[in-house]
Amino acid sequence: MPTNAHGSYLPSPASCQITAFTDRAPWWGGDLQTLRNQIMERQSALPSRPYRLVFQTSDGSGDQLTGTLERPLGPQSGPLIVLIHGLTGSEDSVYVRESARFHLVRGRPVLRLNLRGAGDGRSLARGYYHAGCASDLQDILDGLAGEEKQKGFFLVGFSLGGNILLNLLGRVRPGHGVMGAATVSAPIEPSDARKRLMAPRNVLYHRFLLSRMKRDVLAAADLSQLERSAVANAASIYDFDDRFVAPKNGFRDAPDYYERTAGARQVPAITVPTLMLAALNDPWIPAGAYFALRGSLPACVSVVIARSGGHVGFHERGHSETWYDRRIDDWIVHVQAARSLTSGFRC
Questions:
Q1: Which domains does the chain have, with CATH numbers?
Q2: pLDDT, tens digit, 9 for 90 and up, residues 6-55
Q3: Which of 173, 182, 223, 257 has CA 20 to 30 A from 333's CA?
Q4: Does residue 103 contact residue 322 with C-beta atoms inside 8 Å?
């Protein structure tokens, strides 16, 4: 099993591995690992020179997306890291900012992206992002200036942002400049994730997420009175998806939406070195969908499932930085080393 200079595990291509994980006190178990980002949220300044960016969408809607490009204060090296937030998040979500800090101190420029209608992009979009809006990510790649493309892109998607990213990777256009990618706690089978969130043990999570989904959409999207009523009266995430998200975005109903946007369907077509990270005790996302990928992984895709870590938690004993940031850092080094060889990754 390959390791880097510090002895950290480097996943091999086309693997599906379970790895040990020791929770950092006092964040024991999947729920506390998940909740830590909310409990410990802070907004300290990032070590960077920030620039606001606005991107045009290509679907004719006139909607725009926003983000913050962060340049390191010191020497700059490596690819541009594009961070994609999850459901009800934004570029200022604590996990996005902490990952940005992680890469900035290593000299990598970072783009903290707001998906359509999120963050300060609410006033610039009439629509709102969903699990399959991969074309928006393609518009971001197309809209970045030549200077940012010189060393390529490395895309990181958290939770729902990870599922959106997989939808992009399975159909990304030639000349995309993506050197690698990673997902963290992605709901790659949205139907399974919906069922897990609506389980009795997750009633508080379900209420919390549904209330935030309603809040964000009602504040951001250009809605008819009928759509506003559908959002306001949705009694569950399934109702929200079935009565609003699906018809708003051209899907027949919620089951059709879940099936057609499932990132797991795109994995066999991926040709970009991709690392998929998950936890066995994620209270929101069942790990079964990741195990189901065994036997169908392209040569450049690796799945690593930690025994603990919760949902976008992964606060590990003995480390101040998250397990997933350190694993992604290893993966970037791994990909760069492979690219320097004539063979590289073959998918």
A1: 15-189+266-339 (3.40.50.1820), 190-261 (no CATH)
A2: 344 455 556 789 999 999 999 999 999 999 988 876 678 999 999 999 99
A3: 173
A4: no
